[in-house]
Write a sequence for this structure.
């Protein structure tokens, strides 16, 4: 049986390890492209609070929007970048 997560302000977590996947878009904050520094600082502060509870974290950050650029740039196919397509199960 899985215990519920701790309430805000609690001093201990029921989870010892977690995996967190952040989308690259979550780092944009209110901006429409790029990485918004204030948003990254806020997320880092929240992650520190979790780490201070003794929780070990594996954090994956999606980067597709960084490699593709903004939607407008993708539509114009920025020079030096090409879109990659994965095909599961075809051996490539």
């Amino acid at each position: 049986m899985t215990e519920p997560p701790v309430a805000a302000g609690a001093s201990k977590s029921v989870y010892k390890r977690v995996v967190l996947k952040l989308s690259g878009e979550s780092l944009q904050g209110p901006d429409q492209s790029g990485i918004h520094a204030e948003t990254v600082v806020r997320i880092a502060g929240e992650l520190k609070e979790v780490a201070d509870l003794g929780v070990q974290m594996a954090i994956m950050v999606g980067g597709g929007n960084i490699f593709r650029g903004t939607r407008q740039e993708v539509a114009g196919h920025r020079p030096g970048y090409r879109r990659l397509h994965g095909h599961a199960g075809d051996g490539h």
